[in-house]
Amino acid sequence: MVRRRVVLAATASLAAAGGAGVAALRVDEVAQSLRGPLLGVKADPYVSVTALDLLTVGEPQIGQALRELVSAMAAAERATVRATLALGHSLFAVSRPRPRQLRAMPAFAGDVLDPLQTGGDVLVELSGHRGADVRTSTRVLIEAVPKWMLRWQLQGHRPDNRIHEGKSLARNPFHFTEGFGNPPTGREITERTAVRTDQGEPTWAVGGTYQVVRIVRLATELWDKDTVEEQVRIIGRQRDGRWLDGAPADEDPNFAADPQGRLTPLDSHVRLAAPDRRNPPPLVRRSYSYDRGNGDNGLIFSCFQRDLAKGFESVQKRLEGEAMAKYMLTTGGGYFFVPPLGGAWIDKAFRQ
């Protein structure tokens, strides 16, 4: 059992370090979560993602521990690094009203999930414009909690991070610009991500969003041995985002005019992920590159949606057998839920 004083001491240390660049977002307000470090604005160029085993399932003090965690993180709101809190399925006992799709992330085709890099009771995401500040924030967090509480942690960055036509773009480790599939800032982002009242979710979860995190190791050395032309056909776009049928990056390609895949191969990533560009997958991506050295580099893939089955899971199933599969290996991550506006969700979800 985790003592409340341990949790409070850890989170209070995080808040007290505001002058050193620690987190600065009221994480219990989903409106700010969606418009702040995650969605709707230019993504922060640096991030750390930390999964903690906060409490044992059924722990009677879980609600109070979460209140202390949220209060401590929000207390540092004048600092330069922003924080977001998300909940894992393991926080919810059978009798508690959990988000109906929140569960352990399953292994999809080709995944080799490492238990030490997968899941967690809570996910703390710290992001900012300076890598040194994010690293300081992360160090304070990790040093403040008992070693056994830390489940996994990873830091990332977004090369060539920028806004184009209202969309947050970056260059991935395969040298391709990504993010064109996201909607521009505004109403469509909320429509894709925020849980609605008609979804059969617990009332406390309305306004929140499902977050999927995937640690995807990339075979960059193998990839770089291919010609650019072969890489382009595997992805289905030019490196700068232009479509292979000549359409500009910010317009829709005419896949219907290419039924045999002569221009854009049928097993290319973009064609499988979103075969009907007029009806894009109902999710918003926000991914970061990582490099742990010794050839271990890739993506911290992250996406947000109001419905896991219609969002991430439908895309992931379509991607089975894609040409890019041999260059990727998913080793960890998890399903999480970013809670909704206001602190009332704690009492409603974790009432004694």
TrEMBL record:
Q: Where is the signal peptide?
A: 1-23
Q: Source organism lineage?
A: Bacteria, Bacillati, Actinomycetota, Actinomycetes, Kitasatosporales
What are the protein's UniProt keywords?
Answer: Heme, Iron, Metal-binding, Oxidoreductase, Peroxidase, Signal
Under which name does UniProt file this protein? Answer: Dyp-type peroxidase
In alphabetical order, the GO MF annotations are: peroxidase activity
List residues of the Dyp-type peroxidase N-terminal domain.
77-130
Keyword Cell membrane annotated: no
NCBIfam families attached to this UniProt entry:
Dyp_perox_fam
InterPro entries under this entry? Dimeric_a/b-barrel, Dyp_perox_C, Dyp_perox_N, Dyp_peroxidase
Tell me which family the UniProt entry assigns to this protein: Belongs to the DyP-type peroxidase family.
What cofactor does this protein call for? heme b
